[in-house]
Amino acid sequence: MTAPKTPIWQSIADSLRHEMAQGLYPPGAKLPTEAELASRFGVNRHTVRHALAALAEAGLVLARRGAGVFVAARPEDYPLGRRVRFAQNIRSSGRTPSRRITRLETRPATADEAEALGLGAGAPVHVVEGVSLADAQPLAVFRSVFPAARLPGFLAAMDGQDSVSAALAACGVVDFTRAETRITAKLADALTALALRLPEGAALLRTEAVNVDRGGVRIEFGTTWFAGDRVALTVNEGEAASPDRHEERLASGFEKTG
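RESULT FIELD:
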């Protein structure tokens, strides 16, 4: 009895899987285009597309709209503690941190921002928005909101740099800690997906956090949307059990970015 033949698409998928396992295409690397793979294996692009779809279903590759197909990277641990500092977290993992600031503005607080910061309705707040990167790869989109009356010179201190901690120190806030954090699952909308180089609808982890100064005064309400395939948020159990612990809550289900 003749043994069944292995489908060509499966052979292509197996070959690419083997090359990824050998490190020829390391995590984060871009695979050749469909046309290049079709030429290499002597097949049509539909067959290549079938093979790539099988690898994607297995979680081995990710297709990014307009960019190509990339080898899936293992999510890096990102500790959430009372003194969360983006640059410190990224450097500790052996990568180079950077931030691209996209917005510096003073405006009235939204209802949620006013409540989080203990401000009156419509009180002025400073807003900083941008993208956080590790080794030039986007990890998260963030928005940080600060009470303008408490930190009148904050935006001037932020001008020309990307460090919130340095700007706060310039305004007299030499230390701050995280009072609470809320974690929810979201799906990337078009703009967030574009900033993170992800397909629309990709899984995100959103954190909403309140930071306080040494006197316990609320100075920052931050919202961060992490790329779910690049970051694993971790919580230090020792800190979570401390008397002044921060709060960690995970909401089930996925919603569009908000």
